[in-house]
Design a protein that fits this description.
Length: 295
Protein backbone atom coordinates (compact mmCIF):
# COMPACT_ATOMS: atom_id res chain seq x y z
CA UNK A 1 0.00 0.00 0.00
CA UNK A 2 1.03 3.61 -0.56
CA UNK A 3 2.57 5.63 2.23
CA UNK A 4 0.16 8.24 3.51
CA UNK A 5 0.94 11.90 2.98
CA UNK A 6 3.09 13.23 5.80
CA UNK A 7 1.18 15.71 7.97
CA UNK A 8 3.92 16.07 10.53
CA UNK A 9 5.23 19.38 9.14
CA UNK A 10 2.13 21.44 9.92
CA UNK A 11 1.75 23.38 13.20
CA UNK A 12 -1.40 21.55 14.25
CA UNK A 13 0.34 18.19 13.99
CA UNK A 14 3.28 19.56 15.99
CA UNK A 15 0.84 20.47 18.77
CA UNK A 16 -0.75 17.01 18.56
CA UNK A 17 2.66 15.35 18.63
CA UNK A 18 3.49 17.23 21.82
CA UNK A 19 0.28 15.89 23.37
CA UNK A 20 1.17 12.36 22.23
CA UNK A 21 4.56 12.58 23.90
CA UNK A 22 2.93 13.78 27.12
CA UNK A 23 0.38 10.95 27.08
CA UNK A 24 3.07 8.40 26.25
CA UNK A 25 5.30 9.54 29.11
CA UNK A 26 2.46 9.79 31.62
CA UNK A 27 0.53 6.60 30.90
CA UNK A 28 2.37 4.26 28.49
CA UNK A 29 6.09 4.28 29.35
CA UNK A 30 6.85 6.30 26.23
CA UNK A 31 4.93 4.07 23.81
CA UNK A 32 3.68 6.51 21.15
CA UNK A 33 1.46 3.97 19.39
CA UNK A 34 -0.55 3.51 22.59
CA UNK A 35 -0.46 7.26 23.13
CA UNK A 36 -1.96 7.79 19.65
CA UNK A 37 -4.68 5.24 20.41
CA UNK A 38 -5.48 7.14 23.61
CA UNK A 39 -5.45 10.56 21.93
CA UNK A 40 -7.58 9.44 18.96
CA UNK A 41 -10.17 7.79 21.23
CA UNK A 42 -10.38 10.93 23.37
CA UNK A 43 -10.76 13.27 20.39
CA UNK A 44 -13.45 11.23 18.57
CA UNK A 45 -15.47 10.92 21.78
CA UNK A 46 -14.48 14.36 23.03
CA UNK A 47 -17.74 15.23 24.81
CA UNK A 48 -17.28 12.31 27.18
CA UNK A 49 -13.55 12.06 27.72
CA UNK A 50 -11.66 15.26 26.88
CA UNK A 51 -10.88 16.02 30.53
CA UNK A 52 -10.64 12.43 31.81
CA UNK A 53 -7.43 10.84 30.54
CA UNK A 54 -7.45 8.24 33.32
CA UNK A 55 -10.87 7.10 32.11
CA UNK A 56 -9.54 6.78 28.56
CA UNK A 57 -6.77 4.51 29.86
CA UNK A 58 -9.40 2.25 31.40
CA UNK A 59 -11.58 2.31 28.26
CA UNK A 60 -8.66 1.35 25.99
CA UNK A 61 -7.12 -1.34 28.18
CA UNK A 62 -7.73 -4.23 25.75
CA UNK A 63 -4.33 -5.25 24.39
CA UNK A 64 -2.23 -8.25 23.53
CA UNK A 65 -3.36 -11.63 22.27
CA UNK A 66 -7.02 -12.56 21.93
CA UNK A 67 -8.06 -8.90 21.86
CA UNK A 68 -10.70 -9.64 19.17
CA UNK A 69 -9.28 -6.71 17.15
CA UNK A 70 -10.70 -4.28 19.72
CA UNK A 71 -8.63 -1.47 21.23
CA UNK A 72 -11.33 0.27 23.23
CA UNK A 73 -15.05 0.72 23.79
CA UNK A 74 -17.58 2.73 25.73
CA UNK A 75 -21.31 2.58 26.16
CA UNK A 76 -23.44 5.66 25.52
CA UNK A 77 -26.30 5.08 27.93
CA UNK A 78 -28.27 8.09 26.71
CA UNK A 79 -28.27 7.07 23.04
CA UNK A 80 -28.06 3.32 23.79
CA UNK A 81 -25.03 2.82 21.56
CA UNK A 82 -21.96 0.66 22.20
CA UNK A 83 -18.97 2.24 20.44
CA UNK A 84 -16.24 -0.29 19.63
CA UNK A 85 -12.89 1.07 18.47
CA UNK A 86 -9.82 -0.17 16.66
CA UNK A 87 -6.86 2.19 16.18
CA UNK A 88 -3.90 1.70 13.83
CA UNK A 89 -0.92 4.05 14.16
CA UNK A 90 0.35 3.04 10.72
CA UNK A 91 1.92 5.36 8.16
CA UNK A 92 0.57 3.36 5.21
CA UNK A 93 -2.91 3.47 3.69
CA UNK A 94 -5.50 1.19 5.29
CA UNK A 95 -6.87 -1.29 2.76
CA UNK A 96 -10.08 -3.28 2.55
CA UNK A 97 -8.21 -6.35 3.85
CA UNK A 98 -6.94 -4.39 6.86
CA UNK A 99 -10.45 -3.58 8.09
CA UNK A 100 -12.14 -6.87 7.16
CA UNK A 101 -11.23 -8.64 10.39
CA UNK A 102 -12.56 -5.76 12.49
CA UNK A 103 -15.86 -5.81 10.61
CA UNK A 104 -16.20 -9.50 11.50
CA UNK A 105 -16.40 -8.62 15.20
CA UNK A 106 -20.14 -9.40 15.59
CA UNK A 107 -19.49 -12.93 14.35
CA UNK A 108 -16.49 -13.40 16.66
CA UNK A 109 -18.51 -12.35 19.68
CA UNK A 110 -21.18 -14.93 18.80
CA UNK A 111 -18.55 -17.69 18.47
CA UNK A 112 -18.92 -19.30 21.91
CA UNK A 113 -15.96 -21.65 21.43
CA UNK A 114 -13.64 -18.79 20.51
CA UNK A 115 -14.83 -16.72 23.45
CA UNK A 116 -14.21 -19.61 25.86
CA UNK A 117 -10.67 -20.07 24.53
CA UNK A 118 -9.81 -16.38 24.95
CA UNK A 119 -7.31 -15.86 27.78
CA UNK A 120 -7.42 -12.07 27.79
CA UNK A 121 -9.61 -11.03 30.73
CA UNK A 122 -10.28 -7.63 29.17
CA UNK A 123 -11.61 -9.36 26.07
CA UNK A 124 -13.93 -11.49 28.20
CA UNK A 125 -15.20 -8.36 29.97
CA UNK A 126 -15.81 -6.70 26.61
CA UNK A 127 -17.72 -9.71 25.25
CA UNK A 128 -19.90 -9.78 28.36
CA UNK A 129 -20.62 -6.06 27.98
CA UNK A 130 -21.32 -6.44 24.27
CA UNK A 131 -23.83 -9.27 24.75
CA UNK A 132 -25.51 -7.65 27.75
CA UNK A 133 -26.02 -4.35 25.97
CA UNK A 134 -27.23 -6.02 22.78
CA UNK A 135 -29.86 -7.83 24.83
CA UNK A 136 -30.84 -4.43 26.25
CA UNK A 137 -31.44 -3.07 22.73
CA UNK A 138 -28.17 -1.19 22.18
CA UNK A 139 -26.93 -0.57 18.64
CA UNK A 140 -23.29 -1.18 17.67
CA UNK A 141 -20.96 1.47 16.25
CA UNK A 142 -17.70 0.01 14.89
CA UNK A 143 -15.10 2.78 14.68
CA UNK A 144 -11.81 2.25 12.80
CA UNK A 145 -9.23 5.01 13.33
CA UNK A 146 -5.88 5.38 11.56
CA UNK A 147 -2.87 7.69 11.60
CA UNK A 148 -2.88 7.50 7.80
CA UNK A 149 -5.81 7.30 5.38
CA UNK A 150 -8.12 4.72 3.78
CA UNK A 151 -8.10 3.39 0.25
CA UNK A 152 -11.27 3.99 -1.83
CA UNK A 153 -11.97 0.24 -1.68
CA UNK A 154 -11.86 0.29 2.13
CA UNK A 155 -14.27 3.23 2.22
CA UNK A 156 -16.69 1.46 -0.13
CA UNK A 157 -16.48 -1.72 1.94
CA UNK A 158 -17.48 0.10 5.13
CA UNK A 159 -20.40 1.85 3.44
CA UNK A 160 -21.61 -1.47 2.04
CA UNK A 161 -21.21 -3.11 5.46
CA UNK A 162 -23.32 -0.41 7.15
CA UNK A 163 -26.03 -0.70 4.50
CA UNK A 164 -26.21 -4.48 4.84
CA UNK A 165 -26.22 -4.49 8.66
CA UNK A 166 -28.65 -1.58 9.05
CA UNK A 167 -31.53 -3.86 10.09
CA UNK A 168 -29.32 -5.28 12.86
CA UNK A 169 -28.53 -1.77 14.16
CA UNK A 170 -24.84 -2.24 13.38
CA UNK A 171 -22.81 0.38 11.53
CA UNK A 172 -19.15 1.15 10.85
CA UNK A 173 -17.27 4.44 10.58
CA UNK A 174 -13.77 5.40 9.45
CA UNK A 175 -11.57 8.23 10.77
CA UNK A 176 -8.37 9.12 8.92
CA UNK A 177 -5.61 11.40 10.21
CA UNK A 178 -7.14 14.26 8.23
CA UNK A 179 -10.51 13.59 9.92
CA UNK A 180 -8.84 13.50 13.33
CA UNK A 181 -7.10 16.81 12.77
CA UNK A 182 -10.39 18.44 11.77
CA UNK A 183 -12.09 17.00 14.86
CA UNK A 184 -9.20 18.14 17.05
CA UNK A 185 -9.31 21.66 15.60
CA UNK A 186 -13.05 21.88 16.36
CA UNK A 187 -12.49 20.47 19.84
CA UNK A 188 -9.90 23.15 20.53
CA UNK A 189 -12.43 25.83 19.64
CA UNK A 190 -14.98 24.27 21.99
CA UNK A 191 -12.42 23.76 24.75
CA UNK A 192 -11.28 27.37 24.62
CA UNK A 193 -14.78 28.84 24.63
CA UNK A 194 -15.65 30.65 27.80
CA UNK A 195 -18.55 29.03 29.63
CA UNK A 196 -21.61 31.27 29.20
CA UNK A 197 -23.09 32.56 32.43
CA UNK A 198 -26.39 34.31 31.73
CA UNK A 199 -29.13 36.19 33.52
CA UNK A 200 -32.67 35.58 32.26
CA UNK A 201 -35.82 37.37 33.37
CA UNK A 202 -38.67 34.93 34.08
CA UNK A 203 -42.29 35.87 33.44
CA UNK A 204 -43.48 32.75 35.26
CA UNK A 205 -41.60 29.75 36.60
CA UNK A 206 -41.77 26.58 38.66
CA UNK A 207 -38.94 24.56 40.17
CA UNK A 208 -39.15 20.78 40.02
CA UNK A 209 -36.76 19.10 42.50
CA UNK A 210 -35.63 15.49 42.26
CA UNK A 211 -33.10 13.27 43.98
CA UNK A 212 -30.58 13.68 41.13
CA UNK A 213 -31.03 17.24 39.88
CA UNK A 214 -33.07 20.43 39.91
CA UNK A 215 -35.23 21.55 37.02
CA UNK A 216 -36.53 25.02 36.34
CA UNK A 217 -39.52 25.36 34.00
CA UNK A 218 -40.37 28.89 33.00
CA UNK A 219 -41.85 31.31 30.52
CA UNK A 220 -39.45 33.94 29.15
CA UNK A 221 -39.50 36.45 26.35
CA UNK A 222 -37.75 35.33 23.17
CA UNK A 223 -35.69 38.52 23.39
CA UNK A 224 -34.07 37.15 26.58
CA UNK A 225 -32.72 34.15 24.67
CA UNK A 226 -31.65 36.38 21.78
CA UNK A 227 -29.77 38.61 24.24
CA UNK A 228 -27.98 35.58 25.72
CA UNK A 229 -26.90 34.54 22.22
CA UNK A 230 -25.78 38.07 21.30
CA UNK A 231 -23.57 38.11 24.41
CA UNK A 232 -22.08 34.62 24.12
CA UNK A 233 -22.58 33.56 20.47
CA UNK A 234 -22.13 29.84 19.71
CA UNK A 235 -20.75 29.04 23.17
CA UNK A 236 -24.39 28.55 24.30
CA UNK A 237 -24.60 25.67 21.78
CA UNK A 238 -21.49 23.70 22.78
CA UNK A 239 -23.67 20.73 23.79
CA UNK A 240 -26.00 21.02 20.79
CA UNK A 241 -25.36 18.69 17.81
CA UNK A 242 -26.91 21.25 15.42
CA UNK A 243 -26.40 24.97 15.08
CA UNK A 244 -28.56 27.34 13.03
CA UNK A 245 -29.67 25.56 9.85
CA UNK A 246 -30.35 28.76 7.92
CA UNK A 247 -33.30 31.04 7.24
CA UNK A 248 -34.52 29.17 4.18
CA UNK A 249 -35.69 25.96 5.82
CA UNK A 250 -39.44 25.43 6.14
CA UNK A 251 -39.30 25.59 9.94
CA UNK A 252 -37.18 28.76 10.02
CA UNK A 253 -39.47 30.50 7.54
CA UNK A 254 -42.48 29.60 9.69
CA UNK A 255 -40.83 30.94 12.85
CA UNK A 256 -39.90 34.22 11.16
CA UNK A 257 -43.40 34.61 9.73
CA UNK A 258 -44.97 34.09 13.16
CA UNK A 259 -42.66 36.60 14.86
CA UNK A 260 -43.38 39.24 12.22
CA UNK A 261 -47.09 38.71 11.63
CA UNK A 262 -48.50 36.93 14.71
CA UNK A 263 -46.13 37.50 17.65
CA UNK A 264 -48.90 36.76 20.16
CA UNK A 265 -49.07 33.20 18.81
CA UNK A 266 -45.34 32.49 19.00
CA UNK A 267 -45.74 30.84 22.39
CA UNK A 268 -48.54 28.59 21.08
CA UNK A 269 -46.78 27.54 17.88
CA UNK A 270 -43.38 26.63 19.34
CA UNK A 271 -42.36 23.95 21.80
CA UNK A 272 -39.83 26.08 23.62
CA UNK A 273 -36.21 25.18 24.29
CA UNK A 274 -34.36 22.92 26.70
CA UNK A 275 -31.09 23.96 28.29
CA UNK A 276 -28.69 22.36 30.75
CA UNK A 277 -26.42 24.16 33.19
CA UNK A 278 -23.88 23.62 35.96
CA UNK A 279 -25.98 25.52 38.47
CA UNK A 280 -28.67 28.19 38.73
CA UNK A 281 -30.33 30.47 41.24
CA UNK A 282 -33.53 32.53 41.11
CA UNK A 283 -34.00 35.90 42.76
CA UNK A 284 -36.88 38.30 42.10
CA UNK A 285 -37.96 36.46 38.95
CA UNK A 286 -34.47 36.56 37.46
CA UNK A 287 -32.49 33.36 36.92
CA UNK A 288 -28.73 33.42 37.12
CA UNK A 289 -27.51 30.41 35.09
CA UNK A 290 -23.94 29.05 35.08
CA UNK A 291 -22.80 27.47 31.80
CA UNK A 292 -26.13 27.89 29.99
CA UNK A 293 -26.27 25.26 27.21
CA UNK A 294 -29.15 25.03 24.77
CA UNK A 295 -29.57 21.39 23.77
Amino acid sequence: PKKAQNSESNPLWQQIESDLKRLGAEYYAGNLSKAFRHWAFREVFYDEFWDADSDVVERTAIDGSDDFKVDGYWEDEEQKVLHVVQVKAWDTDITEDDIESFLALPERVRDEERVLKARNRYTKEFVYTYKTLRNDGYSIDLVFITKSKFTPAATRRVKNFSDIRMDENIKARLFSLEDLQTIHRNNLVTRNMEKPNVSIRLLRFQEIPSSESRTLVGVVRASEIARAYDSHKDSVFMRNPRLFLGRNTKVSKGIIKTIRNEPSRFFLYNNGITATCDDYSVKRKRAGVKNFQIV
